Amino acid sequence: AAGVDNTFRRKFDREEYLKRAREREEKEEEERLKKSRGSLVQRKPLKHRDYEVDLESRLGKTQVVTPIAPLSQQAGYFCSVCECVVKDSANYLDHINGKKHQRALGMSMRSERATLQQVQDRFESLKTRKDPGSFTVQELDERITKQQEEEEEKKRQRRERKKEKKE
After folding, report:
1. Where in this chain does the record put each U1-type domain (predicted)?
2. What are residue 78's DSSP bridge partners?
3. pLDDT for 2 beyond 80
4. What sign for the dihedral angle of Cα 157, 162, 165, 167?
5. Fewer beta carbons below 10 Å: N end or C end of the chain?
């Protein structure tokens, strides 16, 4: 064992590597704190839409789609807030109600907590809006007869169209 030369092995300086590890941990901690500070942006709570979502405007229409068209003219529904194209109306509605879109609008996905007074006021407004005394049996009968007449008129028009086609 006296004649073995193993000096080629690398010798590590433990103090130097401990110092490097501590510095690396401090940097990681600083980055973590920066990220956590950045995510503390106060966003507004969710609110009702004040506009109508237009899903029926392009229903049944055809459109020529080219690969070089801008995003707003491509096939599907274009979201100008997020600058993305969604292929159908169901996915567009999901996108509008989704987290990414709401974040882009500056809202969190939490709703504002209602107070007892707000709930009571809402109940009162709904009671006054829906007046139970305004609906009578006579009105119901009139509505039913009117609807039956409209259905009969539609059937008669269909029959006339069929006769015209046969002739």
Report:
1. 74-108
2. 85
3. no
4. negative
5. N
